[in-house]
Amino acid sequence: MTLIRQACEQVMSDAARPNIYLNSSSVSKEELAEAIRVREGIQSGPVCQLRAVEPIWSYEIRRDRSSKWLVLEPRLRKCLHLYHYWVDEQVGMMNVRIALWLPFGVKVCINGREWLSRQMDGAGIKYERRDNCFTWVSDLERAQGLLDEQLKTDWPGLMDRVVSRSHPAWKTWRR
Predict the structure, then answer these.
(1) pTM score, two decimals?
(2) Hey, which bits of 40-144 come out as E strands?
(3) Sequence-distant (≥ 6) Cβ neighbours of residue 14 within 8 angstroms
(4) pLDDT tens across 113-156, in order?
Protein backbone atom coordinates (compact mmCIF):
# COMPACT_ATOMS: atom_id res chain seq x y z
CA MET A 1 0.00 0.00 0.00
CA THR A 2 2.68 2.49 0.94
CA LEU A 3 4.67 1.87 -2.25
CA ILE A 4 1.56 2.28 -4.41
CA ARG A 5 0.65 5.50 -2.60
CA GLN A 6 4.17 6.89 -2.89
CA ALA A 7 4.37 6.11 -6.60
CA CYS A 8 0.98 7.73 -7.28
CA GLU A 9 1.84 10.81 -5.25
CA GLN A 10 5.21 11.10 -6.98
CA VAL A 11 3.49 11.37 -10.37
CA MET A 12 1.62 14.50 -9.27
CA SER A 13 4.60 15.85 -7.33
CA ASP A 14 6.82 15.54 -10.42
CA ALA A 15 4.20 17.50 -12.39
CA ALA A 16 3.98 20.13 -9.59
CA ARG A 17 0.25 19.45 -9.24
CA PRO A 18 -1.73 19.73 -5.98
CA ASN A 19 -2.22 16.77 -3.67
CA ILE A 20 -5.26 17.50 -1.51
CA TYR A 21 -6.77 15.46 1.32
CA LEU A 22 -10.57 15.76 1.56
CA ASN A 23 -11.88 15.16 5.06
CA SER A 24 -15.52 15.68 4.10
CA SER A 25 -17.75 13.74 1.75
CA SER A 26 -19.72 16.93 1.08
CA VAL A 27 -16.93 18.25 -1.17
CA SER A 28 -17.51 17.42 -4.84
CA LYS A 29 -14.27 15.97 -6.21
CA GLU A 30 -15.31 16.69 -9.80
CA GLU A 31 -16.11 20.34 -9.05
CA LEU A 32 -12.88 20.84 -7.11
CA ALA A 33 -10.75 19.25 -9.86
CA GLU A 34 -12.55 21.29 -12.54
CA ALA A 35 -12.01 24.51 -10.55
CA ILE A 36 -8.28 23.72 -10.33
CA ARG A 37 -8.18 22.95 -14.07
CA VAL A 38 -9.88 26.23 -14.97
CA ARG A 39 -7.87 28.32 -12.48
CA GLU A 40 -4.58 26.87 -13.74
CA GLY A 41 -5.62 26.96 -17.41
CA ILE A 42 -4.80 23.28 -17.90
CA GLN A 43 -5.63 22.07 -21.43
CA SER A 44 -3.92 18.66 -21.18
CA GLY A 45 -2.05 16.59 -18.65
CA PRO A 46 -2.34 16.14 -14.89
CA VAL A 47 -4.67 18.38 -12.90
CA CYS A 48 -4.48 17.18 -9.28
CA GLN A 49 -4.58 14.26 -6.89
CA LEU A 50 -7.37 14.14 -4.35
CA ARG A 51 -7.28 11.77 -1.40
CA ALA A 52 -10.33 10.61 0.55
CA VAL A 53 -11.23 7.86 3.01
CA GLU A 54 -14.25 6.05 1.60
CA PRO A 55 -16.07 2.72 1.98
CA ILE A 56 -14.90 -0.25 -0.06
CA TRP A 57 -15.77 -3.93 -0.19
CA SER A 58 -12.71 -5.75 1.06
CA TYR A 59 -11.89 -8.77 3.17
CA GLU A 60 -11.39 -9.52 6.82
CA ILE A 61 -9.40 -12.52 7.98
CA ARG A 62 -11.30 -14.49 10.60
CA ARG A 63 -10.37 -17.69 12.41
CA ASP A 64 -13.04 -20.38 12.14
CA ARG A 65 -12.81 -22.24 15.45
CA SER A 66 -14.74 -25.30 14.27
CA SER A 67 -12.68 -25.96 11.12
CA LYS A 68 -9.47 -24.46 12.51
CA TRP A 69 -8.98 -22.56 9.26
CA LEU A 70 -8.50 -18.91 8.48
CA VAL A 71 -11.45 -17.58 6.52
CA LEU A 72 -11.63 -14.53 4.27
CA GLU A 73 -14.95 -12.77 4.71
CA PRO A 74 -16.10 -9.92 2.48
CA ARG A 75 -16.86 -6.82 4.49
CA LEU A 76 -17.47 -3.13 3.96
CA ARG A 77 -14.42 -1.23 5.23
CA LYS A 78 -13.07 2.27 4.98
CA CYS A 79 -9.85 2.89 3.12
CA LEU A 80 -7.87 5.65 1.50
CA HIS A 81 -8.58 6.27 -2.19
CA LEU A 82 -6.45 8.32 -4.53
CA TYR A 83 -8.15 10.21 -7.35
CA HIS A 84 -5.90 11.30 -10.20
CA TYR A 85 -7.57 13.92 -12.39
CA TRP A 86 -6.21 14.42 -15.91
CA VAL A 87 -7.15 16.18 -19.10
CA ASP A 88 -6.57 13.37 -21.57
CA GLU A 89 -5.80 14.22 -25.21
CA GLN A 90 -8.46 11.77 -26.44
CA VAL A 91 -11.27 11.76 -23.88
CA GLY A 92 -10.87 15.08 -22.03
CA MET A 93 -11.25 15.52 -18.28
CA MET A 94 -11.24 12.14 -16.54
CA ASN A 95 -10.05 10.48 -13.36
CA VAL A 96 -8.47 7.28 -12.12
CA ARG A 97 -9.53 6.11 -8.64
CA ILE A 98 -7.09 3.80 -6.88
CA ALA A 99 -8.09 2.03 -3.66
CA LEU A 100 -5.20 1.52 -1.25
CA TRP A 101 -6.63 -1.61 0.36
CA LEU A 102 -7.02 -5.17 -0.83
CA PRO A 103 -7.96 -5.97 -3.54
CA PHE A 104 -6.44 -2.60 -4.69
CA GLY A 105 -9.24 -1.81 -7.12
CA VAL A 106 -8.79 0.72 -9.90
CA LYS A 107 -11.72 2.56 -11.49
CA VAL A 108 -11.51 4.87 -14.47
CA CYS A 109 -14.15 7.56 -14.95
CA ILE A 110 -14.54 8.94 -18.48
CA ASN A 111 -17.32 11.30 -19.55
CA GLY A 112 -18.62 10.21 -22.96
CA ARG A 113 -20.08 13.65 -23.65
CA GLU A 114 -16.74 15.33 -22.94
CA TRP A 115 -15.14 12.85 -25.32
CA LEU A 116 -17.82 13.43 -27.96
CA SER A 117 -17.39 17.21 -27.73
CA ARG A 118 -13.68 16.75 -28.46
CA GLN A 119 -14.55 14.53 -31.43
CA MET A 120 -17.07 17.06 -32.76
CA ASP A 121 -14.57 19.91 -32.35
CA GLY A 122 -12.09 17.89 -34.41
CA ALA A 123 -14.71 17.14 -37.08
CA GLY A 124 -15.91 20.74 -37.27
CA ILE A 125 -19.41 19.91 -36.07
CA LYS A 126 -21.05 22.84 -34.33
CA TYR A 127 -22.97 22.23 -31.10
CA GLU A 128 -24.27 23.90 -27.99
CA ARG A 129 -23.44 22.41 -24.62
CA ARG A 130 -24.84 23.29 -21.21
CA ASP A 131 -23.16 21.53 -18.33
CA ASN A 132 -23.09 17.88 -19.38
CA CYS A 133 -25.85 18.07 -22.00
CA PHE A 134 -25.90 18.86 -25.70
CA THR A 135 -28.85 21.17 -26.34
CA TRP A 136 -28.19 21.50 -30.08
CA VAL A 137 -25.99 19.69 -32.62
CA SER A 138 -25.67 20.92 -36.21
CA ASP A 139 -25.22 17.45 -37.74
CA LEU A 140 -26.80 14.71 -35.65
CA GLU A 141 -25.97 11.94 -38.11
CA ARG A 142 -22.23 12.71 -38.11
CA ALA A 143 -22.27 13.19 -34.32
CA GLN A 144 -23.92 9.79 -33.90
CA GLY A 145 -21.24 8.28 -36.14
CA LEU A 146 -18.54 9.75 -33.89
CA LEU A 147 -20.31 8.41 -30.83
CA ASP A 148 -20.50 4.97 -32.46
CA GLU A 149 -16.73 5.13 -33.02
CA GLN A 150 -16.25 5.28 -29.24
CA LEU A 151 -17.67 1.76 -29.04
CA LYS A 152 -14.87 0.51 -31.31
CA THR A 153 -12.18 1.84 -28.96
CA ASP A 154 -9.30 -0.41 -27.95
CA TRP A 155 -10.52 -0.34 -24.36
CA PRO A 156 -7.69 -2.41 -22.82
CA GLY A 157 -5.16 -0.14 -24.55
CA LEU A 158 -6.96 3.01 -23.41
CA MET A 159 -7.22 1.74 -19.83
CA ASP A 160 -3.53 0.77 -19.73
CA ARG A 161 -2.58 4.19 -21.07
CA VAL A 162 -4.62 6.24 -18.62
CA VAL A 163 -3.96 4.10 -15.53
CA SER A 164 -0.20 3.83 -16.17
CA ARG A 165 0.02 7.64 -16.02
CA SER A 166 -1.33 7.52 -12.46
CA HIS A 167 0.96 4.67 -11.43
CA PRO A 168 3.91 4.05 -13.79
CA ALA A 169 4.37 0.44 -12.59
CA TRP A 170 0.70 -0.40 -13.36
CA LYS A 171 1.53 -2.79 -16.20
CA THR A 172 3.79 -4.85 -13.94
CA TRP A 173 1.49 -5.17 -10.92
CA ARG A 174 -1.85 -5.62 -12.72
CA ARG A 175 -0.96 -9.11 -13.94
Answers:
(1) 0.84
(2) 45-64, 69-88, 92-99, 106-110, 127-130, 133-137
(3) none
(4) 999 999 999 999 999 999 889 999 999 999 999 999 999 999 99
